[in-house]
Amino acid sequence: MAYLTLTNINKIYPNGFHAVHNFNLEIEKGEFIVFVGPSGCGKSTTLRMVAGLEDISSGDFLIGDRRVNELGPREREVAMVFQSYALYPQMSVYDNLGFGLTLQGVDEDVIEERVLATAKILGLTDYLDRMPRALSGGQRQRVAVGRAIIRKVGVFLMDEPLSNLDAKQRVTMRSEITQIHRQTGATTIYVTHDQTEAMTMADRIVVMKQGYIQQVGTPYELYFRPVNMFVAGFIGEPPMNFIRGTLQNGQFPVDTQKLDISPVLGNRTAEFADREIVFGFRPESVLLGEQENSFHLKALVELTEMLGDNANVYITIGDEHAILKVDPHDIPAIDSEITFSVPYDRVYLFDGQTEDVIPTEKG
Known about the structure:
By secondary structure, this protein is of the alpha+beta class. The protein contains ten helices and 21 strands. It has two domains: about 5-235, P-loop containing nucleotide triphosphate hydrolases (Rossmann fold, 3-Layer(aba) Sandwich); about 240-360, CATH 2.40.50.140.
């Protein structure tokens, strides 16, 4: 049996707004699950329903075999880390960490033991006497995480905990939270709009859009086997390139060029005759020049960005725009015409109407 089970969960507000639609998910004990999606997709609302901070309009939420819909946050034995640090400014780091245990009436010797152990895990031992105002943003976030893990509950809930940190601090805290999860073994649900956080931290990712689950899978599965254009475009940086066109006589038109799509569609080519399809490829999948077992495309270079280990090349193919990620030693000149190759096994095709992926020869 799964540790957490959400079955047909819906959230409908009094004004009729349907924020979450038929959310179904099973989470195993010790998993690190990330909810990801754009603002307003329902990920934080779902997390708050798990926490008991929002009522569940319909559906069932089980912890183990116990239905907990009507239980409050404390009764559910979950701990939540919010976007804001929510530290007590008048208390030291030590007192912030131990405050929840003090309210529970835990013995002072036990509090001290657990505070010191938690501080050691988080690298806060040297800061226990400091006030929050004397800490950096990353250190404050560690204290906020520490207040959650010190309670030794079964479920940790984190709602965009790194959004207030700068880029360098986010990278550091990402690895620290992942390490804390490994050390504690606690089941964790983490909400973010940042797909990089999702890809680097999660055991499984739940991609949401407008209150609906789009896909649940490992980072590998979402990157290499997206089920639709939304997931394909959301996961990956820069995002996947898409070119729309109508398949005619097995040929896919790209500006003045025509691509024989049969190496990808195989014997299904006739099935999609005269239908709009979307030709997708990731920026990092391309090779400059004409390569074997690939589609060859001509394009005009609009802009280039040197990023150190790679370079982004912004191109136009007729009215279509795309981004290529290339070796920094091979950056083409702006306004030049280039030919690039997309290997057959790196191409994704989508139905132009439903935007669902079309199975190809690569599987």
